[in-house]
Each structure stands twice: as structure tokens, then as C-alpha cells.
């Protein structure tokens, strides 16, 4: 009887594993279709220069607009895309749309910049850099107006490929940032190895602003940045007090719900046209 129960449990486990795998495959196929059929769209969050309070640009953040009307945030589908080269198509699709929108907005506000998130997976493919460059060329936006944020849930390739990719992108005129600094894979090692222009300080740090430790960490990061000649953006600023402290501690730029949540393109269109 006991043996039978063990076998039964084992079969049940195998069944559940198979179902799980099938579910994963179906979701990935669905996401691939969504990318192809334009269901993945960028929403935009303004980036503010702390010294002047001016909006200097926007970060494009992927949203999945299901045909049912449901809107999904990237927390689930971006990690799924990052499991495979789907993230390449997703990133390029978001970048293409974001630069088309930027073209429009620059008519009202010349000099407005666009930040897009890029997986390090692009660096592992020979066509990675040419693809990124041609998206900019096709949109008619100079690389000088584009910020590329290296986002990580997979480790950045730490060999020379990533280093030379960052160098190459900067030679082409792009600004390159290390995203989510202070969490996960976004480590001092990457700061040492990757010749980036700037650091995006993670929201976990912003949340601690105003405390002794939060201020100490922020001051250390901005000190390190200035020593290295890098610019800084702090993410996730939700209060005036945090914005003031971040500015006092040397952060150059900020993003956060204090100014705006990510907005659909139409909302930014309206704001830009009436500005
Ligand atoms: P991220 O690049 O670090 O983007 C910042 C995230 O913080 C965004 O979440 C934004 O909505 C959120 N945020 C900004 N200000 C505040 C605030 O004041 N309070 C709070 N609670 N949250 C704030 P979102 O849009 O959910 O994006 C999550 C992550 O998904 C991004 O983090 C990025 O790593 C990834 N992602 C989004 N779009 C793309 C994409 O097109 N390509 C790639 N590779 N990754 C993307
Ligand atoms: Mg980002
Ligand atoms: Mg970030
Ligand atoms: Mg993030």
C-alpha cells in the first residue's frame, strides 16, 4: 500500500511538472504573438532634473495591452521574456514605438530625451548592436538623445563583450546607464567593468531617504559617481521631502510618483501639446 502511494505521488508530481511546463510554453507563445501584433506598448514616466525641476525626458516602460482591454505591468511578462531571446524583440519593439513618440514630442519640446530599457542579452548576439543603432536611424532620432538603461534580472555578461558593447554604443552617441543600482545583479562589479555614463539608483534607496542609513548610502553612491565622472538618477521618489534630500545629497535627476506615474502616450501627447 505504501509503495503504491509513493508511486501515485510520483506520478502526480510528474503530471504537475508537465502541466507547469506546458503552461510556461503557452505563455511564452502568447507573449511572442503579443509582441508581433503590437499588444506591447510603452507607457512613459517623466525624468526630472532636480536642480531646475524641469522634465528632461521620459522612460519608456513596457505594458501589455490585452485585446480584452486588460493592461498588464511588466513584473510578470518581462521576466518571462528575459528567459529567452523574446526580450530582444520586446526591447526593440518598445524602443521603436518610443522613438516615434519622441519625434512627435520634440516638435513641442526640442531636446526632450528618451530612456529605454535594454537586456544584456543584446550584447551576446553579433546583430545586437547594429539592430539597436538601426532602430534609432529608422526613427530619425540621433543616438545623442537616447538613454539606454541596462536592466538586470540575469547577470550581465561579465566578459569583455559587455564592456566593448557599452564602449561601442557610447561611441555611436548613446548614453548608457546601469539600472537598479544597489540591488540584485547591479553591483559594484558592473560599475568597475562597464564604462557607463550614469547610475540609476534603485527605489529601495529612495525609500530610505531621510534616515541616517538611507542618507549615508545615497551620499556614498553620489560621491562614487562624481569621483568616476558619472551622472545619477534616483528612482521611486514619492515625496517632496525625499526629492529635497536627494538633491542635497547630490543626485542629478529623479523619477517617481511625486511628479508622475507612467502615462500612456496619449496623455503625454496632450501634456506636451498644451505646454
Ligand atoms: P525600471 O527600469 O527600474 O523602471 C522603474 C520602475 O519603477 C517602473 O516599474 C516604474 O513604474 C516604477 N516606479 C517609478 N517611480 C515609482 C514610485 O515613485 N513608486 C513606485 N512604487 N514605483 C515607481 P514598471 O513600469 O512596473 O517596470 C518594472 C521593470 O520592468 C523596469 O524597472 C524594467 O526593469 C522592466 N522593464 C519595463 N519595460 C521594459 C522594457 O521595455 N525592456 C526591458 N528589458 N525591461 C523593461
Ligand atoms: Mg529602467
Ligand atoms: Mg530601475
Ligand atoms: Mg527595475
From TrEMBL:
All copies of domain EAL, residue ranges: 24-275
Domain of life: Bacteria
Protein name listed in UniProt: EAL domain-containing protein
Lineage: Bacteria, Bacillati, Actinomycetota, Actinomycetes, Jatrophihabitantales
Entire protein: shown range: 143 to 417 of 417
Amino acid at each position: 500500500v505504501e509503495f503504491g502511494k509513493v508511486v501515485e505521488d510520483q506520478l502526480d508530481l510528474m503530471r504537475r511538472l508537465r502541466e507547469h511546463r506546458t503552461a510556461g510554453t503557452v505563455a511564452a507563445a502568447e507573449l511572442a504573438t503579443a509582441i508581433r501584433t503590437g499588444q506591447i506598448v510603452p507607457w512613459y514616466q517623466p525624468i526630472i532634473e532636480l536642480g531646475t525641476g524641469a522634465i528632461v525626458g521620459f522612460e519608456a516602460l513596457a505594458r501589455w495591452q490585452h485585446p480584452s482591454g486588460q493592461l498588464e505591468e511588466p513584473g510578470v511578462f518581462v521576466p518571462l521574456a528575459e528567459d529567452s531571446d523574446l526580450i530582444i524583440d520586446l526591447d526593440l519593439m518598445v524602443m521603436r514605438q518610443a522613438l516615434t513618440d519622441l519625434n512627435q514630442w520634440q516638435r513641442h519640446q526640442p531636446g526632450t530625451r528618451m530612456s529605454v530599457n535594454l537586456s544584456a542579452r543584446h550584447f551576446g548576439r553579433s546583430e545586437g548592436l547594429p539592430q539597436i543603432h538601426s532602430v534609432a536611424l529608422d526613427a530619425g532620432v540621433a543616438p545623442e538623445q537616447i538613454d539606454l538603461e541596462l536592466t538586470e534580472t540575469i547577470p550581465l555578461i561579465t566578459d569583455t563583450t559587455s564592456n566593448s558593447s557599452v564602449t561601442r554604443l557610447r561611441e555611436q552617441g548613446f548614453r548608457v546607464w546601469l539600472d537598479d543600482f544597489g540591488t540584485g545583479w547591479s553591483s559594484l562589479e558592473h560599475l568597475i567593468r562597464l564604462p557607463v555614463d550614469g547610475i540609476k539608483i534603485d527605489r529601495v534607496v529612495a525609500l530610505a531617504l531621510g534616515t541616517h542609513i538611507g542618507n549615508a548610502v545615497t551620499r556614498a553612491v553620489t560621491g562614487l559617481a562624481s569621483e568616476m565622472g558619472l551622472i545619477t538618477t534616483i528612482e521611486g521618489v514619492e515625496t517632496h521631502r525625499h526629492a529635497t534630500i536627494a538633491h542635497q545629497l547630490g543626485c542629478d535627476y529623479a523619477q517617481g510618483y511625486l511628479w508622475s506615474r507612467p502615462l500612456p502616450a496619449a496623455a503625454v501627447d496632450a501634456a506636451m501639446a498644451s505646454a
